[in-house]
Each structure stands twice: as C-alpha cells, then as structure tokens.
Design brief:
Elements: H1 3-18, H2 25-32, H3 36-42, H4 46-66, H5 77-94, H6 102-110, H7 115-141, H8 151-172, H9 176-189
C-alpha cells in the first residue's frame, strides 16, 4: 500500500475512533509509519486530510449503503428501508457497538468549529434524507406506507431516529436501539 493510501486509511480510522480534534498528526504518522514530512507532502494540513477522508467516506456510504438499499428500485420501498436499517445495524455490530456514526460524530464535533466540515456534512445529510424521502414517497404511492404522512417530514424523522439510535448503541453497547427502532418505524409507516 502506498504512503498516501496508508495515511488516508489510518486517518479515517483514527478520526472515527477518537474524533478530529483529539487525533494528532503525530499519531497518524506513527500509525502509518511514515514521517511527518511525508504526510505533509501528501496533505498540506490535518484539515485537508480530514476533509479528503470525509469525502471518501461519504462517497463510499452512498455507493455501498444508499444506492443498494434505499436506491434499489427493484425492491419494494418497505424492503429497501428494512435493508437500509439492516445494513446500518450490521455496520455497528461489526464495530462491537463502538465509535458511533462517523458522520454524526463529526457533525457534532465540527459544525460549530469549521464551515468547511459543516457545509460538506449538511449536503451529505440532505442527500441521505432525500434518498429516504424518495423511498417513502414511492411507498405511499404503492400503498405500502400510510397515505396521511408527509414524505419529507418522515425522512427527517427517520434520519434523526437513526442518528439518535446510533448514539444510544454507542452509549449502551447494544444494537437494540437500532433494531427495535427500525421495527417501530416500519410499523408506524404501515397503512391502517
């Protein structure tokens, strides 16, 4: 693996595990076994490195999670939403219910500190919300979901519920806030 790739991989993990502000350039260099001068050859600053890891992670989330679940129109909307929840639960299970959401963590940590982080995360969360909204809207039109709900508001609610559930998963070290929350949301969406 090339130095740049090793730096990005290590930084991605450390920023998720410890947060942006707590992670030092020295730690990243030590973890990757590259010199600080080599790190600065590839990235002018820790912020530039973090923004690149964020962009990479957001693109990966869209291609690996959003598109094959919420965006998979060959599946019913209810099945897409269930698969989305399952994927999120599987990810946090693989982390042993540690670290939380890399995007939610960074939003909480950096939105009041850096406009660059805040703007990128705001766009990312809006895009995620729109993917949920499209799924809900289609579910309403197909009769899978209640007709008396507003897809945009429900999408906001689901995204907020997922992020809150992930925080509880991290806090309690159990998956139930995600898994049981998913069941409750899907039940609430059922037509009367």
């Amino acid at each position: 693996m090339k130095s740049r790739e090793k730096i990005i991989q290590a930084a991605t993990h450390l920023f998720h595990k410890k947060g942006y502000q707590t992670t030092t350039v020295d730690e990243i260099a030590e973890t990757t076994r590259v010199t600080k001068s080599n790190l600065y050859y590839h990235f002018r600053s820790k912020e530039e490195l973090a923004l690149e890891t964020l962009d990479m992670r957001m693109n990966q989330f869209e291609s690996d999670v959003i598109l094959p679940t919420l965006g998979e129109t060959s599946l019913s909307p209810k099945k897409r939403l269930q698969q989305f929840y399952d994927h999120v639960a599987d990810f946090h299970s693989s982390l042993e219910c540690r670290y939380g959401c890399p995007f939610g963590n960074l939003a909480i940590e950096m939105s009041d500190v850096s406009e660059k982080f805040r703007k990128r995360l705001s766009i990312f969360f809006r895009n995620w919300e729109k993917a949920i909204e499209r799924c809900i809207d289609e579910g309403i039109r197909e009769g899978e979901f209640r007709r008396d709900i507003n897809p945009k508001l429900v999408a906001q609610l689901i995204l907020s519920q997922v992020e809150g559930a992930i925080m509880m998963v991290k806090t309690h070290k159990i998956l139930e806030p995600l898994t049981e929350g998913a069941k409750a949301v899907l039940k609430l969406l059922e037509p009367a």
